[in-house]
Amino acid sequence: MERCPRDTPRVTATLGELLMNVEDARNDQRGLEMASPLTSSASSFNSWTSAPASSITSSPFVLSFTDLTYSVKIKKKFPPFCGNSSSNDSALNTKILLNGISGEAHEGEMMAVLGASGSGKSTLIDALANRIAKDSLRGSITLNGEVLESRLQKVISAYVMQDDLLFPMLTVEETLMFSAEFRLPRSLSKKKKKARVQSLIDQLGLRSAARTMIGDEGHRGISGGERRRVSIGIDIIHDPIILFLDEPTSGLDSTSAYMVIKVLQRIAQSGSIVIMSIHQPSYRIMGLLDRLIFLSRGNTVFSGSPTHLPQFFFEFDHPIPENENKTEFALDLIRELENSPEGTKKLVEYHKEWRAKQQAAARYYNNGITLKEAITASISKGKLVSGAATTNSPSSFQTYANPFWIEMIVIGKRSILNSMRQPELIGMRIGAVMVTGIILATMFTKLDNSPKGVQERLGFFAFAMSTTFYTCAEAIPVFLQERYIFMRETAYNAYRRSSYVLSQSIISIPSLIFLAACFAATTFFAVGLAGGASGFLFFFLTILASFWAGSSFVTFLSGVVSNVMLGFTVVVAILAYFLLFSGFFISRDRIPLYWIWFHYLSLVKYPYEGVLQNEFEDTTKCFVRGIQIFDNSPLGQFPNAVKLSLLKSMSGVLGINVTAETCVTTGIDILKQQGVTEISKWNCLWITVAWGFFFRVLFYFTLLIGSKNKRR
């Protein structure tokens, strides 16, 4: 395989070198001028460049892949009729997505993977970026002749997804700064991190949009091309050796697409290997690419320099017309062959022969430089800043650039900043809680100590406790909106999953305290609940524990369910079951044995029983006196004189003097009637809190298992 010929081979400075000199350069009259994204950055790098003339091309980093093969099993849509099928019909269909793909990518160059939709472009990028499980992918991937281990690849490479996954309420500068705080080590001062971000903003051509919010459908922000460059910037903040991109020009106009590829060319020239998939590049973009791989249904039909395309298709007896776009001609021809009876089989076979000839004539070598030596040399020049936190030895790279507590602070700071710029969401949740509290307070105003008052109290507590859980359902979209941002950031060790879980848990507590205080203050005194100051404190703590358990439960479900509407449906259904089995509709003693397990799993059970005990634990308070025992029966309609006569008759039969003022039912009796005798109120509170921690742990394991972001 030959390289695209260049007039003068050169080795440009790494972005790390530019950073190391950025402060001096600003005071230097010669300076570094990197503000324009459309002009070549060669003049900015002259003081660090060298151009040894040699007929033999050498490259410190060479990424080689050989015979990459990947297939998936697909179930048939329509199973065969019984008794009329062979054993093969019942088996799964196997679809080959990659079939023996081989090639090389070199430092300082851009390789583009082209092909029609379904040709395997994104699959090949995923395979090279270690996003396909090792046991599913056959073939070998090496860097400088050594097998590239997964842990090392995460440190020295970056992957830019096709979709621009960014926080909409952050500015461009803030987005890149948070990325710097994640990916750059604590040993690098805040001043140097800011200098790195500023130099990267200039390199990406984002100076005019630096203080503009990213934006989304509801908030005006930066353009599509600028969003794509920001997406690239957050993944190259640590100056990776290898950069993978999936369709970086997708959805962009020709000018924006050219600007993006121009930025990628500068990144490659700073000492990186850039590998991307691209659908149909323009003529100008083709002039920037160094290597091409054309795919057709998982097979390679061309690989090499763009300058070799005319020769290749000429020898294949399909010469490219003189004034025709080479790429368009090649893609059109490939599509035409795919639709023919023989397909692209002849083109695939011819490419194998042609490539064998090219490899025989190639004169690439890496001067015997091992991978360890090459990485160490790159670190010494300022590349791989996160890997150089403590040592220059690649064998002792830090998996993460920062300790977990630094990650927690940065994650929390970013989440708070993003939330503060969406006050309508915070206001809606506070409004929902306050409106619910006011409705309950006005509906159950000053309940009396009568049999009807007891029933009304039970209804109030059941509705209040279940409402605290239902209002937590708004947490479902929070993680679902961040899911793919989280997967992108953790895929290449920007931070630990545990740091994310802990940070999100801690920053949720202040808002839960505020909501619980609002709800408790609105309802406790208006309803006339018992217990005074200590009773109010316990009621507040129970509401807080319910909010904590509810938000933890909903957060866990958001890690399991990937669709917002499905998530709301599941949450509402499960919370309804929790209320059904809480003991309000049917007491614990009356629940069938085969359902009693669900009673103990109900999140509503424990706060409900806790507040019941808080209300009815006073043995001196009476809730049913004398003639009130007839209130919930047909006898309740009779005059009091008749009721007193009945009490005298009952007293004679029972041998106990029962008057109109005799206490018949105390709070303890009500608790026994409701089956609330097993667990004390404080234990109910601790169990509710424990449920919250339990679901946070489950959420962590959900992220650990479900965010691998690898194909199987």
UniProtKB/TrEMBL annotation:
The keyword Repeat does not apply. The keyword Acetylation does not apply. Pfam families: ABC2_membrane, ABC2_membrane_7, ABC_tran. It is a multi-pass membrane protein. GO terms for cellular component: membrane. Residues 63-322 form the ABC transporter domain. Belongs to the ABC transporter superfamily. ABCG family. Eye pigment precursor importer (TC 3.A.1.204) subfamily. This is ABC transporter domain-containing protein. It comes from Brassica cretica (Mustard).
